[in-house]
Amino acid sequence: MDSLESGQESAGSMEEVTELVATAGLMFTLSTSIVSCLESKVADPKLLVPIPIFIILLLFLIVTLPISGGHMSPIITFIAALKGAITFARAAVYVLAQCVGSIIGFAVVKIVMGQEAAQRFSLGGCVVDATGSQGLSPEVALTLEFSCTFVFLFISITVAFDEKRCKELGLNLVCVMLAGVAAVVMFISIVITGEPGYAGVGLNPARCLGPAILHGGPLWNGHWVFWDEVEVLAAYR
């Protein structure tokens, strides 16, 4: 009995460590890839952003989904808790791990990224209004965040939290669908606005929290917008 309990505790710890490490890695690779896209010499570099989002998220989902569920986002964790996939106690630990992972990932970004690039791209964080005169109003950003998160969650809940559907589609196709919808809603949010001071929807509060803590400045302008997913959760509940 003791060995069984020890094994369960070990498995639980592995899941939480996976969430922390995966979130840190995801934040680092996503932010540096997005900045690299924006630094490219193509006519409209923002249109390249969904490509690395899809590829990177797909790889991380394939690796982490069998271990921890591949959450890497408080919004997915809360949905999992509401659906009964994990307990609320474990969800709280997951969210803490994700937020710490985000801070670690962006701390590495801050170390390796040049100061001028870090300032210009706000460390690759979630920006609503970069200067106070460019970007979107918080109200418009909130509408976009709510709408895009709703679409993302609709696909996630319909596919990822339906055990029968998951088995029918297979792990790889489920990962492709989740990564694809994230890339699509990011593409929509960037293209539909066309505002230079807006960095697109966050979809992940942990992704927005890390750079806001480490970099501050414009990242706190309208930061509350990226935590509006609580409203989405209430709607799904």
UniProtKB/TrEMBL annotation:
Family: Belongs to the MIP/aquaporin (TC 1.A.8) family.
An annotated Gene Ontology molecular function: channel activity
Gene3D superfamilies cross-referenced by the UniProt entry: Glycerol uptake facilitator protein
GO cellular component terms, A-Z: membrane
This protein's name: Major intrinsic protein
Keyword tRNA processing (UniProt): no
Cellular localization per UniProt: Membrane
Positions of transmembrane segments: 47-65, 95-113, 140-161, 173-192
Pfam (any one): MIP
Keywords, comma-separated and alphabetical: Membrane, Transmembrane, Transmembrane helix, Transport
Membrane topology, from the record: Multi-pass membrane protein
Location, primary (coarse class): membrane
